[in-house]
Amino acid sequence: MNIRKIALLLLVLVAGVVTAQQKKITLEEIYDGTFRMQYLDRLHSMNNGKEYAVLNTDRNSGVKTLDVYSYKTGEKVNTLINSSEIDGLDYFIGYTLSDDESKVLLSTKLRSIYRRSSLGVYYVYDLESKKLTQVAEEAIQEPTFSPDASKVAYGLDNNIYIKDIKTGETTQVTKDGVKNKIINGITDWVYEEEFAFVRAFDWNADGDKIAFIRFDESDVPEFSMDIFGNELYPSKDTFKYPKAGETNATVSLHIYDVASAETKNVDLSGFQNYYIPRLEWTPDANVLAVQTTNRKQNDINLLFVDAASAKARLILSDTDDAYVDVTDNLTFLDNNDFIWTSEKDGWNHIYLYDKNGKLINQVTKGPWEVTSYYGYDPKSKRVFYQSSENGSINRGVYSIKINGKSKEALAAEEGTNSANFSTDFTYFINSFSDAETPYVFTLNDAEDGDVIRKIKDNQALKDQFDAYVISEKEFFILPINGEELNAYMIKPKDFDPAKKYPVFMTQYSGPGSQSVANSWSAGNGYWFQMLAQEGYIIVCVDPRGTGLKGRDFKKMTQKELGKYEVEDQIAAAQALGERDYVDADRIGIWGWSYGGFMASNCIFQGADTFKMAIAVAPVTSWRFYDSIYTERYMTTPQENASGYDNNSPLSHVDALEGKFLLVHGSADDNVHVQNTMRLIEALVQANKQFDWAIYPDKNHGIYGGNTRLHLYTKMTNFIKENL
């Protein structure tokens, strides 16, 4: 060996040496806030595009202020609200400015219902007159200003109401709302969870009409959960939950005229109308845009409804052999031409259509994905978006002319860039991170991307990690089953290629998801570093069916959730086991939710590959999961029984050989604990020994108090004892 090779080897060995001063991460530190990440507070871009508002809280007095800052300088220029100066209101939690910024909705006494929904007591504060008006005595949902801020529409007890701020008069728009039967203007459980919205009503541009969706849940089966609480007798939480193949709510569309107090029914029977996943008024106050889809969700119709006649016409139909994603990317130009995103060329891209649905041009093109659509600036005629064109594990921010020309890379440094634009697209706040860099926030010029100033970084956190044993996250490509899969590996800091190490695989693997990303990873990322300190190699592989590699890669798992992903994870583990430094007899896998479904399947179907597995809140049969998510990928059990059953962990319990830990929260309204109970019974009847834990009254996130610390301690101990 020559001198140069010896020197290089010494450098490698020195780089992996753990110094005496460095210490190991502990679970207590992960969950007691030792590693504090600095984020930007939620901001609201003001109409002038040059200023933004931020809600601040004085930690000593508890006083909240809504302060306005200059984008360019970061200096405070004004205080819109000071809670200590509002007569009749001691505090508030959140705020929403009216379109004209003359009034503010203030929220108090918020109480979560499900993932996105909440109830609260709301007030309107007039910024000029300083007058405070309570919207309703009761806790309400989704209060929304009319465009001129003269009224607030809201949901209460499954009905829609309108409060006139000036007169104080309240009008009840609908009167047939009944719990677990009829809902007006607020989505049901499955729409909220899978179509990701709660407010199912919208004001038109003139503020004289409200369009809303009505949900008839009468025939939807109910699901009940025991809530153990602290009382002598548990209570029950009962709600409508359509599982795969079961009856969904019947939805209908209506338009309410504020002046006449009349409601028109919109006939959608001539279109794909099983679901109505989106509605919004166009800039034309007489034209309502509605998106509808069939039960398979592979044909989305964009409809324009004439408010005067309540007649609907088809503008666009986006179809796919598998499914079409519902997004919030629809954007209207002043003349009702519109921007739409679609995977129709094999990658997710931006398209421009005229108001009659005729394609004008494809705005973005290439073998990469538009991952976020930020908006359109009519002055510069530019579209702003985030994409993976600098590599599928990276994200960059770009702008392009609406004609598809003159593309500008605004923030495309290798890593993950995400933008928040000012109202007039003069500036954007860019958040950047990569695997080695915690979040850095900068103010950038939206024309060329130049950094104007640094707003906040996490250098203190980065410096803090210098005192700890931190390993590099190494990205690589793993050739598996004819595909090149994205992967990363975290080795022990003192890694010795001459030794053999156990491998702990982490994954999610769900449709369109991505776990292998060049971004900072807190939470589980710290846990993985802790496990690497204990001598484990951490590996993550994104299998077929995950996202950012085109339509065909993502949708090839259609009707077979859990087949190809499991094959890929098993094959990946076997490929890793062939490496000289991997102990092929000590490979484990874990996951949460879809990842728990995968971990269960992997240890059952890969009994000769995996020594142990941990499944947290897993789906154990897609027959138990909700209709909208499941049928999007699997169709119904009636149509695809083999796809459901052949890929269910319940069908493979007889093959379990390794160590298995099964965890669930008893109050999981999303993936019901029924999934785990059925798997427990199947394992018991197969006479398979395993470990399990139920966390009382905990939802899908399994958190609260010491819960996360307890859970991760249990999982860490299980890994140490069995891998």
From TrEMBL:
The keyword RNA-binding does not apply. One of its GO terms (biological process) is proteolysis. Residues 98-439 form the Dipeptidylpeptidase IV N-terminal domain. PROSITE patterns: PRO_ENDOPEP_SER (PS00708). SUPFAM superfamilies: alpha/beta-Hydrolases, DPP6 N-terminal domain-like. InterPro entries: AB_hydrolase_fold (IPR029058), Pept_S9_AS (IPR002471), Peptidase_S9_cat (IPR001375), Peptidase_S9B_N (IPR002469), Serine_Prot_S9B/DPPIV (IPR050278). Residues 1-20 form the signal peptide. Keywords: Glycoprotein, Hydrolase, Protease, Signal. Gene3D superfamilies: alpha/beta hydrolase, Dipeptidylpeptidase IV, N-terminal domain. Pfam families: DPPIV_N, Peptidase_S9. Transmembrane segments: none annotated. Residues 528-723 form the Peptidase S9 prolyl oligopeptidase catalytic domain. GO terms for molecular function: dipeptidyl-peptidase activity; serine-type endopeptidase activity. PANTHER family: DIPEPTIDYL PEPTIDASE 9, PROTEASE FAMILY S9B,C DIPEPTIDYL-PEPTIDASE IV-RELATED. This is Dipeptidyl-peptidase-4. It comes from Leeuwenhoekiella aestuarii.
